């Protein structure tokens, strides 16, 4: 068993969906010192353990916060115990909502939050739906009905895939641990990946590794995407490139989400979160 001094450094990738987290992980894993990937089961188990150790159960009488901390920390460290990486990134949308807990469990950990304009996130999901018109998506509970308007409303609701992540991001951004998070904007990552990665390396205090932005290999998500009925959800192109395009959303719907990028509003960063 590894001692705490032998453990790797743990960091967490979170933020908004369709905002570059899979691309970021694909690039980071080029570094042989790093482990990174798409969403892991750790976040879901983390929530289940929190609930299982709550006062809802009689057995919580035998638990104190020290025990809870050992169990939750052990979940993360033991899940990655077989990895030889010295720096581990775990990805999950919910980590933004658990930044105080992560800070307590791993005081040196950093949170990398990928962000993007909400209207383009909705546009990206709609493109996936239209790319697979004969295959209902698990994103929408495999229902075959609905319209672009109902799909957008469902995604943006507080318990929707986009709405939850957006609210969690705001919680972390305005919270006491905001200085331990770095927001990586999709446009920066797509247009200047070296600049984005340099900011990540500087933020986590790791020496620079020369990445290959012309030859990205990442195929971990294919089976998961097929099972979800949404082929292409985690597809990463061979090269990093920005592809200018017009939205496929109706203009009134596209404009509904315009201006949601609170992190870009002047004077709206009270806790000093880093943004690249």
Automatic annotation (TrEMBL):
<dbReference type="Pfam" id="PF13469">
    <property type="entry name" value="Sulfotransfer_3"/>
</dbReference>
<protein>
    <submittedName>
        <fullName>Sulfotransferase</fullName>
    </submittedName>
</protein>
<dbReference type="InterPro" id="IPR027417">
    <property type="entry name" value="P-loop_NTPase"/>
</dbReference>
């Amino acid at each position: 068993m590894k001692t705490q001094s032998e453990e790797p450094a743990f960091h967490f990738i979170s933020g908004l969906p369709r905002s570059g987290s899979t691309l970021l992980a694909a690039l980071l894993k080029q570094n042989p010192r790093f482990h990174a990937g798409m969403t892991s089961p750790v976040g879901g188990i983390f929530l289940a353990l929190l609930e299982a150790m709550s006062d809802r159960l009689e057995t919580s009488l035998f638990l104190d916060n020290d025990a809870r901390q050992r169990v939750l920390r052990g979940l993360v460290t033991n899940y990655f115990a077989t990895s030889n990486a010295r720096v581990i990134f775990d990805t999950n949308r919910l980590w933004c909502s658990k930044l105080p807990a992560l800070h307590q469990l791993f005081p040196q950990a950093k949170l990398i939050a990928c962000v993007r304009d909400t209207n383009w996130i909705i546009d990206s999901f709609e493109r996936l739906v239209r790319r697979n018109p004969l295959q209902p998506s698990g994103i929408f509970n495999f229902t075959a009905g609905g319209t672009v308007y109902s799909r957008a409303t469902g995604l943006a609701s507080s318990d929707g895939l986009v709405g939850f992540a957006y609210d969690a991001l705001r919680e972390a951004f305005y919270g006491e641990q905001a200085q331990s998070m770095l927001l990586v904007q999709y446009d920066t990552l797509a247009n200047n990946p070296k600049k984005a990665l340099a900011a990540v390396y500087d933020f986590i205090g790791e020496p620079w590794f020369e990445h290959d932005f012309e030859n990205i290999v990442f195929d971990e998500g294919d089976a998961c995407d097929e099972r979800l009925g949404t082929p292409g959800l985690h597809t990463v192109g061979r090269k990093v490139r920005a592809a200018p395009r017009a939205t496929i959303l109706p203009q009134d719907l596209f404009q509904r989400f315009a201006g949601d990028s609170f992190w870009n509003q002047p004077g709206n960063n009270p806790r000093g979160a880093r943004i690249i």
